[in-house]
Amino acid sequence: MNLKMFMAGGLLGLGIASPAMAHHSFAMFDQTKIDTKTHATVTEFRFTNPHSFVVVSVNAGGVNTSYALECSSVNMMNKAGWKFNTLKPGDAVDVTFYPLRNGKPGGMLKTVKLADGRTLSGW
Questions:
Q1: How many C-beta atoms surround the C-beta of residue 121 within 10 A?
Q2: 50: cis peptide before it, omega within 30°?
Q3: Fewer CB within 10 Å of terminal CB in the chain, N or C?
């Protein structure tokens, strides 16, 4: 009986720990710096768990660069005023974000300013 209880407890512990192990660190974002891109164009908005993503295209000097910006969970974003249809491909936005430490285009979304003047938090 004790062996069965021990095994059940071990399996329960693994089940609880697995989601925590799957969650990544935020060390990949440089939270001491903030980057801003104005007149960005939304190319994709993924309103999903565990993290949503906004992908924008920025034209600088005739060169388009895509930025994948990680956001919070659907639950947290709902509380901040986001909906599944807040952003659509083609929307013009201004974004502020914590850039990736490796210098690649992307980061963790801080805020997005919508065409109607609203500013929403990504975290």
A1: 17
A2: yes
A3: N
Question: Can you give the pLDDT at residue 24?
Answer: 61
Q: What is the pLDDT of residue 11?
A: 47
* Pairing label, strands 92-99, 106-113: antiparallel
| Encoded amino acid at 43, one letter | T
For residue 7, count CB atoms less than 10 angstroms from its CB and return exposed for 0-12, middle for 13-18, buried for 19 or more: exposed
Q: Identify the architecture of domain 25-121 in CATH.
A: Beta Barrel (2.40)
Domain boundaries, the chain: 25-121
Residue 57 has pLDDT above 70, yes or no: yes
pTM over 0.85: no
Residue 22: is its pLDDT beyond 70? Answer: no
- More confident: 100 or 17: 100
Q: Do 74 and 47 form a contact (C-beta atoms < 8 A)? A: yes
